[in-house]
C-alpha cells in the first residue's frame, strides 16, 4: 500500500516535470518558428552577424514587465474594427459643431475647407479631404485624439473627440444631423474613398509602377 | 610799498597759476588726441584686409567641441515642418548629423532620457518597458543607410538646387539594437503580422509596419554617426528601417505594439498614399525606389570650359546600386559612371564621371539601375504609369542645362526623355 502510494507520487512528480518541460519546449519551439521565418536573411551589411548571434545568451531578460495598467494608459490607437474606441461616450453633430468652431475652425475654416491648414471637407478644388480621401472613419477619432488641436495636442476628452468626429462626418455628408457616433456606430461607417485603396505591389525589377 | 605788495601777490600765487596753466594744457591736449583717435580713419597704402600668415603665428587652442571652418557655411533649407539637406555642399555619402534632413509633425520634442521609456506590447507573451540604459545592454549593430522622405521631389523653375529638388534624403551610420533581438525574448505570437510604432512627440506620430518585411533589418537606434542621435533625428531613440520611406522610421520612439492588422493611422491613409492609375490610391508603398541626382555641376554653380568631374549620388531602397549612367548630350549617349565602392545596400552611393566640356550649351542627366534591374524612370514614364503628375514616391531622372557661360540650371522635367 505504502509502496504503491510512494510510486504513484513519484510517477505524478515525473509526469509534472515532463509536462513542464513539454510546455516550455512547446513555447520555445513555437516562438522559434515565428522568428525563424524572418531570420533566414543575409546581406552584405550583416556579415558575421550570424556567428556573433551564436554567442548571445538565449534570453536577455532586460527591462521590466509592463502591467496592464501601464499599457492601458499608453495604448491609444483605434483600429478600423473599432478596437481601441472608448466604450463610454457618444458624439453628436450639435455638440461637435460647437467644439469645432471653438477649437478647429481657426486652422481649418468655418466650413472645414477655407484653411489656412488642411482641408477637411470636400469643396470644388478637388483637394484631398476626409470625405473624398480618407478610407476609414475610425482614423478621424484616432488622429484627433492623438494630435489635435495643433496648439494643445491630447487636450480633448474622449467625449469631445466623439463629438468632433460626428461633426466632421456630418460636414462631409457621410452621416445625417441626428446620427450619433460611438464605439458601435463608428466602425460601421463606410467611407466613400475606401473602395479606391489598393496595397502597394511594386517589387523592383524593370516594371515602372 | 604798494609795489612790493603787488609783487608778493604774484609771488604768492605764481605756483598756482603755473599748475592751472599746465592742467588746462594737458586737458586740452588729452581731449584733442582723444577726438583725433576716435574719429581717425587709417588709410593704409596697401589693401586694408588684415592678413595673418597662419604659418607665422600660434593657432587657436583646442576646444571640447569642434567647429566648421568660418569659410564653410552649409545650411539646411528650412520651412516650419521640414529642413532639407544641402546635397550640393556635401562630399562623399555621409551626411553630417547637423545637416540631416528633418520632417516633423509637431515640432522637435525635448526628451530627458531618464524619463523616457519604450513600451513593447501587443501580440506577445511578455510586454516590457525599456529605458535607454536597458536598450544599450543588448548586443548592438551599426548600419550605414539612407533615410528619405517619400515626398521628396520638387520642380517647376530653373533656379533650383539639388537641395530644393530632393534634399529630403540623408545618410548616417545608425547604431542600436535589432528589433528582432528584443522580440526574441518576448514570445511573439504567430498571429502578429504588423506592428505599430509610435513617437513621443506632440503628434504621437504613429505608423503600422509589416513585421515580416521590416524585422530582418529594423533597428531601434540610439546612435548616429558615432554620437547620440540628435533631437531633430529622434533623441533618445528612433526606428530605422533601411530602404523604407522616412515616415515609417518613427522618431522619439515610445511604443511598439504587435498587431494582426494595420491600425490605419492618418499617416498611412490620408497622407503617405498616392493616387495611381484607374483612380486608385496606393497605400503602404513602403520601399523607396531607386534614384540618382547630379550634385555637381548643378544650380547655382557655374563651370569653365575643359575637364569637369560630374559628381552625384544614387541609391535604392531595394538593395545595391548596380550602375549609374550619365549623359552629357541630353540623353543621346549614356556613359557608365564610376561608382565608389564599397557599394552598400540601401545606401547613398557616390558616382563620378570625367567630362571635357567643349563650351557648348548642353544638358547633363543621370539615371540609376539597381540590383533588381529597376531603371530610374523619366518623369513622363512615371506620369504615364501612374496617371498623376506627382505625389509620393516620385523619383524621376533629373538633369541640368549647362548654358554657354557655364551656368547650370534645372532642366525642364517634361523635356527629359
UniProtKB/TrEMBL annotation, chain A:
Name of this protein: Sulfite oxidase cytochrome subunit
Provide the alphabetized UniProt keywords.
Heme, Iron, Metal-binding
Q: Which organism is it from?
A: Sphingobacterium deserti
Q: Which Pfam families does the entry link to?
A: Cytochrome_CBB3 (PF13442)
**SUPFAM superfamilies under this entry?**
Cytochrome c (SSF46626)
Q: Which molecular-function annotations from GO does this UniProt entry contain?
A: electron transfer activity; heme binding; metal ion binding
Query: Which Gene3D superfamilies does the entry mention?
Result: Cytochrome c-like domain
Q: Which InterPro entries match?
A: Cyt_c-like_dom (IPR009056), Cyt_c-like_dom_sf (IPR036909), Cytochrome_c-type_DH (IPR051459)
Q: Which domain of life is it from?
A: Bacteria
Q: Where is the Cytochrome c domain?
A: 91-172
Taking the record's annotation, the residue ranges forming a coiled coil are none
From TrEMBL, chain B:
Return the InterPro entries for the record. Answer: Ig_E-set, MoCF_OxRdtse_dimer, Mopterin_OxRdtase_euk, OxRdtase_Mopterin-bd_dom, OxRdtase_Mopterin-bd_sf, Sulfite_DH_SoxC
- Which GO terms label this protein's molecular function in UniProt? heme binding; molybdenum ion binding; molybdopterin cofactor binding; sulfite oxidase activity
SUPFAM superfamilies attached here?
E set domains, Oxidoreductase molybdopterin-binding domain
What this protein needs as a cofactor is:
Mo-molybdopterin
What are the record keywords, sorted?
Metal-binding, Molybdenum, Oxidoreductase
Q: What range(s) does the Moybdenum cofactor oxidoreductase dimerisation domain occupy?
A: 287-378
Query: Does this UniProt record's set of keywords contain Oxidoreductase?
Result: yes
Q: Name one GO biological process term.
A: sulfur compound metabolic process
Instruction: Report the residue ranges that make up the Oxidoreductase molybdopterin-binding domain in this protein.
Output: 105-263
Taxonomically, the superkingdom here is Bacteria
Indicate the transmembrane segments per the record: none
Cross-referenced Pfam families: Mo-co_dimer, Oxidored_molyb
Please state what the protein is called. Sulfite dehydrogenase
| Species whose genome carries this gene | Sphingobacterium deserti
The taxonomy runs: Bacteria, Pseudomonadati, Bacteroidota, Sphingobacteriia, Sphingobacteriales
Amino acid at each position: 500500500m505504502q509502496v504503491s502510494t510512494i510510486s504513484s507520487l513519484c510517477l505524478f512528480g515525473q509526469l509534472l516535470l515532463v509536462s513542464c518541460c513539454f510546455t516550455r519546449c512547446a513555447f520555445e519551439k513555437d516562438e522559434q518558428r515565428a522568428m525563424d521565418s524572418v531570420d533566414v536573411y543575409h546581406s552584405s551589411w550583416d556579415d558575421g552577424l550570424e556567428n556573433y548571434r551564436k554567442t548571445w545568451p538565449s534570453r536577455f531578460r532586460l527591462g521590466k514587465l509592463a502591467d496592464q495598467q501601464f499599457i492601458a494608459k499608453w495604448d491609444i490607437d483605434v483600429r478600423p474594427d473599432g478596437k481601441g474606441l472608448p466604450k463610454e461616450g457618444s458624439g453628436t453633430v450639435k455638440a461637435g459643431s460647437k467644439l469645432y468652431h471653438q477649437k478647429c475652425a481657426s486652422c481649418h475654416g468655418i466650413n472645414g475647407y477655407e484653411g489656412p491648414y488642411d482641408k477637411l471637407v470636400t469643396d470644388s478644388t478637388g483637394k484631398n479631404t476626409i470625405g473624398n480621401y480618407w478610407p476609414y472613419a475610425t482614423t478621424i477619432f484616432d488622429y484627433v485624439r492623438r494630435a489635435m488641436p495643433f496648439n494643445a495636442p491630447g487636450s480633448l476628452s474622449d467625449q469631445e473627440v466623439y463629438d468632433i468626429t460626428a461633426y466632421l462626418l456630418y460636414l462631409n455628408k457621410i452621416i445625417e444631423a441626428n446620427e450619433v457616433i460611438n464605439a458601435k456606430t463608428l466602425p460601421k461607417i463606410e467611407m466613400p474613398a475606401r473602395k479606391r485603396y489598393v496595397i502597394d505591389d511594386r517589387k523592383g525589377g524593370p516594371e515602372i509602377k | 610799498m604798494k609795489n612790493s605788495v603787488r609783487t608778493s601777490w604774484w609771488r604768492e600765487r605764481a605756483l598756482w597759476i603755473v599748475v592751472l596753466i599746465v592742467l588746462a594744457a594737458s586737458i586740452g591736449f588729452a581731449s584733442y588726441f582723444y577726438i583725433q583717435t576716435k574719429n581717425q580713419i587709417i588709410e593704409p597704402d596697401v589693401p586694408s584686409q588684415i592678413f595673418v600668415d597662419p604659418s607665422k603665428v600660434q593657432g587657436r587652442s583646442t576646444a571640447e567641441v569642434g567647429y566648421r571652418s568660418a569659410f564653410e557655411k552649409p545650411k539646411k533649407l528650412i520651412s516650419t515642418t521640414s529642413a532639407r539637406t544641402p546635397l550640393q555642399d556635401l562630399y562623399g555619402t555621409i551626411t553630417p548629423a547637423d545637416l540631416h534632413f528633418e520632417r516633423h509633425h509637431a515640432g522637435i520634442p525635448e526628451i530627458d532620457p531618464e524619463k523616457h521609456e519604450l513600451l513593447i506590447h501587443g501580440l506577445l507573451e511578455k510586454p516590457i518597458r525599456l529605458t535607454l540604459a536597458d536598450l544599450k545592454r543588448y548586443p548592438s549593430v551599426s548600419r550605414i543607410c539612407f533615410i528619405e522622405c517619400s515626398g521628396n521631389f520638387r520642380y517647376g523653375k530653373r533656379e533650383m538646387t539639388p537641395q530644393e529638388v530632393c534634399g529630403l534624403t540623408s545618410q548616417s551610420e545608425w547604431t542600436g539594437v535589432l528589433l528582432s533581438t528584443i522580440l526574441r525574448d518576448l514570445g511573439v505570437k504567430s498571429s502578429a503580422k504588423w506592428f505599430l510604432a509610435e513617437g513621443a512627440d506632440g503628434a504621437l506620430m504613429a505608423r503600422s509596419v509589416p513585421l515580416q518585411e521590416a524585422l530582418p533589418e529594423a533597428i531601434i537606434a540610439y546612435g548616429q554617426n558615432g554620437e547620440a542621435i540628435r533631437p531633430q533625428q529622434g533623441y533618445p531613440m528612433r526606428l530605422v528601417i533601411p530602404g523604407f520611406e522616412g515616415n515609417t522610421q518613427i522618431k522619439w520612439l515610445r511604443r511598439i505594439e504587435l498587431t494582426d492588422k494595420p491600425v490605419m493611422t492618418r499617416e498611412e491613409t490620408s497622407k503617405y498614399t498616392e493616387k495611381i492609375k484607374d483612380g486608385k490610391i496606393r497605400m503602404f508603398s513602403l520601399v523607396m525606389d531607386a534614384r540618382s541626382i547630379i550634385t555637381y555641376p548643378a544650380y547655382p554653380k557655374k563651370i569653365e570650359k575643359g575637364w569637369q568631374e560630374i559628381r552625384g549620388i544614387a541609391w535604392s531602397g531595394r538593395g545595391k546600386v548596380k550602375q549609374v549612367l550619365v549623359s552629357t548630350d541630353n540623353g543621346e549617349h549614356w556613359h557608365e559612371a564610376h561608382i565608389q565602392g564599397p557599394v552598400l545596400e540601401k545606401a547613398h552611393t557616390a558616382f563620378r564621371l570625367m567630362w571635357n566640356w567643349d563650351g557648348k550649351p548642353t544638358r547633363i542627366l543621370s539615371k540609376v539601375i539597381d540590383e533588381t534591374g529597376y531603371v530610374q524612370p523619366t518623369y513622363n514614364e512615371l506620369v504615364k504609369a501612374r496617371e498623376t503628375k506627382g505625389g509620393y514616391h516620385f523619383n524621376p531622372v533629373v538633369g541640368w542645362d549647362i548654358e554657354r557661360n557655364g551656368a547650370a540650371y534645372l532642366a525642364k522635367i517634361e523635356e527629359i526623355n
